[in-house]
Each structure stands twice: as C-alpha cells, then as structure tokens.
Amino acid sequence: MDVTAPEFDVAMRGYARDQVVPLVERIIATLEARQGAAPPEQPVTSAEVQQTRFDVVLRGFNRTQVKEYLASVAGLLD
C-alpha cells in the first residue's frame, strides 16, 4: 500500500470514514514535510497513530486495511 495515497475498501461494519480521513491527511502531510514540503498545522506522531481509536459504523472503512496502514506508517513517524 502506498502510504501517501492509501485506498480503503468500504465494509458493512468498518471504521468511521469521517474519523479516518483527517488522520490519514495529517499523516501524509507530516511525511511530506519530511521530504521538504511545508510543515502541517498539526503534525502527527507515532504514539498518536498507535493510540487512535475509531468508531465502528455501518459502511465504514475496512478495519483490517486501516489497521495495516496505520501500523506501516507508525514506524515511519518515529
């Protein structure tokens, strides 16, 4: 999975999209800032990624895919 352009399937019961998307956008902005882009207003830390919990809702993002993405980027944020 591309960490700067993740795509998650929609599942019958998945993580709330309105909670996942803002975190993913902050992750991408934080990683891009390390490549020379402008720093984000709210950089995200590895600890924050690991501690984040999402609500489970109908037609949310696939939980396994989101967990795998967050696990893969947590190491990049250290």
Give the radius of gyration. Answer: 12 Å
Widest beta sheet: strand line-up: 1-2
Number of strands: 2
End-to-end separation in angstroms reads 19 Å
Q: What is the mean predicted local confidence, pLDDT? A: 94
What is the count of helical runs?
3
Overall structural domain count = 1
Provide the succession of SSEs. EHHEH
Instruction: Report the portion of residues in β strands.
Output: 15-25%
Helix content: 40-55%
Biggest sheet: strands, sense, closure? 2 strands, antiparallel
Ranges where pLDDT stays below 50 over 5 or more residues in a row are none
Which structural class do you get from the secondary structure elements? Answer: alpha+beta
User: Which term fits the overall shape?
Assistant: elongated
Would you give an account of this structure?
The protein has about 80 residues and is of the alpha+beta class. It has one domain (about 10-75). Helices cover about 45% and strands about 15% of the residues. It has a two-stranded antiparallel ribbon with strand order 1-2. The radius of gyration is 12 Å and the shape is elongated. It comes from Salinactinospora qingdaonensis. InterPro entries: DivIVA_domain (IPR019933). This is DivIVA domain-containing protein.
What are the salient characteristics of this protein?
single chain, 78 residues, alpha+beta, two-stranded antiparallel ribbon, 3 helices, 2 strands, 45% helix, 15% strand, elongated
